[in-house]
Specification:
single chain; 5-stranded antiparallel β-sheet; Collagenase (Catalytic Domain); zinc ion binding; elongated; 6-stranded mixed β-sheet; 2 domains; alpha+beta; Hemopexin; 463 residues; 14% helix
């Protein structure tokens, strides 16, 4: 392709794919400040990640907290409505998903799956892609479902004046952490708990566990949330089952009856995104639990934690965050686990482990006002203060630029900051860290590793 107008139409179609299911709208601009920089460039182009000519790397994109740029190798054989070459629309749609804040999906047929998909004449967003982008920006309203229609919101929790708990900025060690079915992340410590948002600890916390989780004790060992929305709390030889912060009848129960094969007094538990199985950790060992099997714990377990390359023994907590990645906590530090390379992500900038207080609880000396001034974005969606256009260009003044204008004014979910690029020869999406854009200020940043179709399909039983 060498007709710029045709390429512009395909890129506009890629934006439309996302705007049709969200409150986002996109406006093409030839100059000025905008949000997403679309460029067709060759070789070294100023971002420290040069293209390599025909074949191999096709494109790469940055997450919102790193500007949202999307770059395409101008030396590739880009095509429209053809099985030959590389379809510019589908690659653009995937890259723009990253520009808007989406990470990779484990759903094989989704647009955001970590591998390149061949040309599809009647391409549509997968439900998984739709739900993911709507988790960041909300649902697009229609005439029959007006935007100003009253929305029923959960009743806010009453103030808990007696909940003077420990200061997580002074001592960031935790007992347990989980993300419940509505997407809320909670950490537990002693008799208290906190809600964690993308920009740190939520206002109004800590609160007493006994005030909001009726029947649940403090000083928990671990907590685990399943895909069906059930959350399990573990302490000693017992466990409690909750849904929507309400305990089910008949609890607590012995761990030996509900989780046969799992020991008492565990350290941590979580569902691994690699295979959807539950994993329990204690000391220097771990167990895999699958309720569909009989027995649910294979005789091969326990296994040594050292199988999870880079993880320490005696961890305090583990969970899968909204970006689909696995996080482990021990003491004042946390570890991000690369599920593809199956090791702690030590190649990030800065490498892991990192300080929990700084990166999760937002314990910074700088004022909130100064932070917002320094950061263009803090999460996958745009900050309220940055809802105007942000610089984005397409290489020259005649190229099309696009501006995203979200109707949401609050900070939403975030994905780790990464360049994502596609390898044409083996049809795999590659992920690389973004080391040159103020990573120390972002909530989560940097990743490294290769995600191929074969590694994804074979990693399910690795642990």
């Amino acid at each position: 392709l060498n007709k710029k107008q045709e390429i512009d139409k395909e890129i506009a179609k890629a934006f439309k794919l996302w705007s049709e299911v969200t409150p986002l709208s996109f406006e093409a601009k030839k100059e000025g400040r905008v949000h997403i920089d679309i460029r067709f460039v060759s070789a070294e182009h100023g971002d420290g990640d040069p293209f390599d000519g025909p074949g191999n790397t096709l494109a790469h994109a940055y997450f919102p907290q790193y500007g949202g740029d999307a770059h395409f190798d101008n030396e590739e054989y880009w095509t429209i409505s053809s099985y030959a070459g590389t379809n510019v629309f589908q690659v653009a749609a995937h890259e723009l998903g990253h520009s808007l804040g989406l990470g990779h999906s484990s759903v094989r047929d989704s647009l955001m799956a970590p591998f390149y998909q061949k040309y599809k004449p009647k391409f549509k967003l997968h439900q998984d892609d739709t739900l993911a982008i709507q988790a960041l920006y909300g649902v697009r309203h229609t005439a029959s479902d007006p935007a100003d229609k009253p929305v029923e919101k959960p009743k806010p929790l009453d103030p808990d004046p007696s909940a003077d708990g420990p200061d997580l900025c002074q001592d960031s060690t935790i007992d347990a952490v989980t993300r419940i079915s509505d997407g809320t992340t909670f950490v537990f410590k002693g008799l208290h708990y906190w809600k964690v948002e993308t920009n740190g600890l939520a206002d109004g916390y800590p609160r007493k566990i006994s005030s909001d989780w009726d029947g649940l004790p403090g000083n928990l060992d671990a907590v685990l949330t399943w895909a069906d929305g059930k959350t399990f709390f573990f302490k000693g030889d017992k466990y409690w089952r909750f849904k929507n912060m309400r305990m089910d009848k008949g609890y607590p129960k012995p761990i030996s009856t509900g989780f046969a094969g799992i020991p008492d007094k565990i350290d941590a538990a979580f569902v691994w995104s690699g295979n959807g199985k539950s994993y329990f950790f204690k000391g220097n060992e771990y167990w895999r639990f699958d309720s569909k099997n009989d027995p649910p714990v294979s005789k091969q377990y326990p296994k040594p934690i050292k199988n999870w390359n880079g993880l320490p023994n005696n961890i305090d907590g583990a969970f899968k965050w909204e970006n689909g990645m696995s996080y482990f906590f021990k003491g004042s530090q946390y570890f991000r686990f690369n599920d593809v390379d199956f090791e702690v992500d030590t190649k990030a900038k800065p490498p892991f482990p990192r300080q929990t207080a700084q990166w999760w609880f937002d314990c910074q000396a700088a004022s909130r006002k100064q932070k917002k001034k320094e950061l263009r974005t803090r999460s996958g969606s745009l900050l309220k203060e940055e809802s105007r256009s942000v610089y984005v260009g397409n290489g020259d003044s005649n190229d099309m630029d696009y501006m995203a204008d979200s109707q949401r004014t609050t900070t939403s979910a975030s994905s780790d900051a990464r360049i994502v690029r596609v390898d044409k020869e083996d049809r795999e999406w590659r992920m690389h860290g973004r080391p040159d854009r103020d990573e120390a200020a972002a909530f989560e940043s940097g990743a490294s590793g290769t995600a191929s179709l074969s590694s994804l399909s074979s990693s399910g039983d690795r642990p």
